[in-house]
């Protein structure tokens, strides 16, 4: 997925200086959205602390921006350190942006980022009732297992190629231009 719009939004990497915009997105999640993202009900304070932790570490975050606000996000957190081969992924999509292909596009972007950073294993956890996330994961080849009241998914991204590295670099450059010129809507096909 390139910078193409989804319902008018654009997917790009979320920079550390945009921590507040990311936090605001998480705070806008409905109670059901918070439960889906965090596995249970969480307070505003928890979200504030989570947003601070995300950008203090080696996480990679992509967001769907809609003329300023983030409406959906995908987080990739290295497990055991930035240079380990496993990363955990998590997603959050605001209610009005559900069922629009946003989760699928975000997972594709995260998979490419994982691939280009030498991650050979992505893991994810979701609640059994989060059928949307299970479908998105399955579309990307995840192996799903139900155990202990949760659904665990594993995806094995392929090794990086010159094309995957080039595509990420082009998307990163386009994202920088979007920020610099405040152009949130750019139509481009992959």
UniProtKB/TrEMBL annotation:
- Limits of the N-acetyltransferase domain: 9-168
Pfam families recorded for this chain? Answer: Acetyltransf_1
Tell me where on the tree of life, at the top rank, the source sits. Answer: Bacteria
Q: Where is the signal peptide?
A: none
What SUPFAM superfamilies does the record tag this protein with? Answer: Acyl-CoA N-acyltransferases (Nat)
What stretch or stretches form a coiled coil here? none
MF term (GO), any: acyltransferase activity, transferring groups other than amino-acyl groups
Looking at the UniProt entry, the stretches that span the membrane are: none
- Return the protein name: GNAT family N-acetyltransferase
